[in-house]
Amino acid sequence: MAKNVVFSLILLGLLASGWAIMYFQFPYYQITLAVGALSLLLMTLLHERFVFLYAVIVALALGAFLTAEAFNQNLESATQVQYMYSHLLFTAFLLLFWILLNILKNTGYENSELKAQVQLLQKYNGKTQVLTVAEFKEQATWLLKASERNGEEAWLLKINLAYPNRRTKTNLMEMFETAALRTIRHKFDLVTSDSGSIFLLLKNTHAQGVERVLERFWEKAQKDVAFQEPPFTTETGRVADVKQLARLMGEA
Question: Where are the transmembrane segments (predicted)?
Fold first, then answer.
């Protein structure tokens, strides 16, 4: 609520200062308006660390220009005061716009952080209910520790969907995720998907066991798709720890 009030007040101040420059038409108001309009565009495009510096430089430059004009023309005090008012309005306009940009960018950052936190809290993805990548990694940590403690092998099966049509690829991913869930041993193995790949982390198995899992996966997938040949490639590897798992999943 307080943020909304502050945002509204700043927006009103910005509009009021721009309106005042046009309404009172102080000396060189056309130049002031042109510089202000250009500054709105540039400040929006500039990196945030340079926006305030730009606003200060432009305000000082316009102030120096108006001061020089006032002295060169030997203007009366009343006219010089108008120059001062014009500069104050322009400076207020720039500073209020800078504050407004900061509020909008901070709001965007907060929304991004909230979305990231929600994704971390979610355990399952989409319609098929495979694990999210974050939850997969979390559970994989415990699975790999248990495998090491019990002297068991853990293997990763990576299925890379190779299909050019984006819409069809999305539908196939859902079908293959469902097939993967029907293939694994629940409460033993883990499944997730990311960037067109499905990852199956298989506990207490070996290379031949991974091959049998892949065969079962394709048998179940063929019930939903009409492909004679698998529309995917596969990669397999034994996993000893979380770092090795990250490398096999293609992460830096």
Answer: 30-46, 51-71, 83-104
CA distances from residue 3 to 111, 168, 182 in whole angstroms, order as listed: 14, 44, 49
This prediction has a pTM of 0.55
> Cα–Cα distance between 12 and 104 in angstroms, integer?
15
Structure tokens at 58: 């432009």
Give dist(CA 17, CA 138) in Å, integer.
53
> Which one, of 116, 132, 113, 102, lies nearest residue 199 by Cα?
132
For residue range 76-95, list pLDDT tens digits in order.
888 889 999 999 999 999 99
Superfamily of domain 124-248 in CATH is: Reverse transcriptase/Diguanylate cyclase domain (3.30.70.270)
Residues 6+ apart with CB under 8 A from 207: 155, 236, 238
Give the list of residues 6+ apart from residue 120 with CB closer than 8 angstroms, or none: 134
